[in-house]
Amino acid sequence: MDIKELLDQKYYQYNNSHFIETDPIQIPHSFSLQEDIEISAFLASTIAWGRREMIIKNAKHMMNVMGNSPYNFVMDFNENKIENIEKVVHRTFQHQDFLYTIASLQNIYKNHGGLKNVFENSFKKYGNVKDTLIEFRKIFFECKFPLRTQKHIADVNRGAAGKRLNMFLMWLCRKDKSGVHFGIWNIDNSKLMLPLDTHTASTGRKLGLITRTQNDWKTVEEITENLRKFNPEDPVRYDFALFGLGIFENF
Fold it and tell me: DSSP string of the chain?
């Protein structure tokens, strides 16, 4: 079995509704309003590192604090009126980071037309994901922010792999018929970049898709370009395969 055949097989194995049950993408899948989906997806992806069980548990608690109405919560945000805010924690993401994130999202929805508008307009302007993420980070930190929060929004301009931001874009933009990803934003599948984490990077190296030793933006470009050789219209579809091989099959 060659590499493409293996990855295609594993893509079809994991790209189905059962994947949602064990993945943080279940958080935005609990909403129907587009703005709720966008905001909950952004928040869930922002804390998506570590054990998936804890990511899901802490993201669900975050939604509970927001009254399970993320968009209304963001638009009506007043940091002095939030109950149980000190319990919004995921590893190094503390309640101070949550407060700023909500304040920034409020600025984005009130003054920039929302997350969809920010990402789509930036992509139209630059035509690539890297510059789109750089532009988003500038807008995200327009307000007065705590320095500690900067580490939670990847700076791809300084070489960060941007795993969580790329995953967020994949969730919202990637279009297919399986129902795992939402496909409600207009950035073409062919332009998306692989969300590189320890599992996809390890599997990628074992399959010869990565030659670099660092997990940085150049490595994201390398593995995504190699995956485009297998499927130029939808290279990040293989995230299912690489992730599944790594975390479910200990490849």
Answer: --HHHHHHHHHHHHSSHHHHHTSGGGTGGG--SHHHHHHHHHHHHHT--S-HHHHHHHHHHHHHHTTT-HHHHHHT--GGG-TTGGG--BTTB-HHHHHHHHHHHHHHHHHSS-HHHHHHHHHHHHSSHHHHHHHHHHHHT-S---GGGGGGS--GGGT---HHHHHHHHHHH---SSSSS---S---GGG------HHHHHHHHHTTS---SS-SHHHHHHHHHHHHHH-TT-GGGGHHHHHIIIIIS--
How far apart are the C-alpha atoms of 197 and 43, rounded to whole Å? 18
Token couple for 92:
């190094």
Percentage of the chain lying above the pLDDT 90 cut: 83
What is the residue type of 85? I
DSSP bridge partners of 93: 90
How far apart CA 109 and CA 120 sit, in angstroms, is 14
Nearest to 74 by CA among 84, 62, 58, 86: 62
Phi then psi for residue 122, to 5 deg, are: -65, -40
How distant is the alpha carbon of residue 50 from its chain centre?
14
Q: Is the pTM of this model over 0.85?
A: yes
pLDDT in tens, 170-184: 999 999 999 999 999
- 21 contacts: CB under 8 Å, gap ≥ 6: none
Distance in angstroms (rounded) separating the CA atoms of residues 61 and 222: 37
